[in-house]
Protein 1
Amino acid sequence: MISSLALTGCQTIQEPQKIDIPKFPIERPERPMLLPVPKDDTVESIKTLTINMNRLVTHIERLEMYDDLKDAYWEQTTAN
């Protein structure tokens, strides 16, 4: 009796339709290589910190552009 209840209670469902999305063609920006900050020389430390900050800001700008492009790509690809 239990097996007949189990069989009558089961339903066969269709497999969900798979969407084939091509790979995003742009590669994610790589992290910048930061310079070590010297401990003894204040002037060189400030220069190095400025260079590192510039590299980080540039990386963030590229990463935000990458995310925007990826979002637009996703919306365009899935809209069809």
Note: The first helix runs from residue 2 to 9.
Protein 2
Amino acid sequence: MTQCPSSIPRYSIGTWDGEKESYTPQHGLSVPSFNSTRSQLRIAMKELRLMGYRCHRFRDEDGSHDDNDWTVLIERTDGKHWKEIRRGWRRPTWS
């Protein structure tokens, strides 16, 4: 995967996998899970809703995001390599 120009916002989308205890790319999307454009992100969210995810993204009146759908991770990644993105999606292991 090539690096995307940093001036173009890119987003990565993952869903929570309880067995792996980490976010993973969602199978069945018609757009890439890594470094999607804003229009591709909108398509992914629509498809995820059809799969049963809420994809709720809303800032509460107090400025918090407590009511967001935690099973869907959307983050701005601006062309990072997919391996770097996946490392960030792993749940930390505590010893």
Note: The chain has a mean pLDDT of 86.
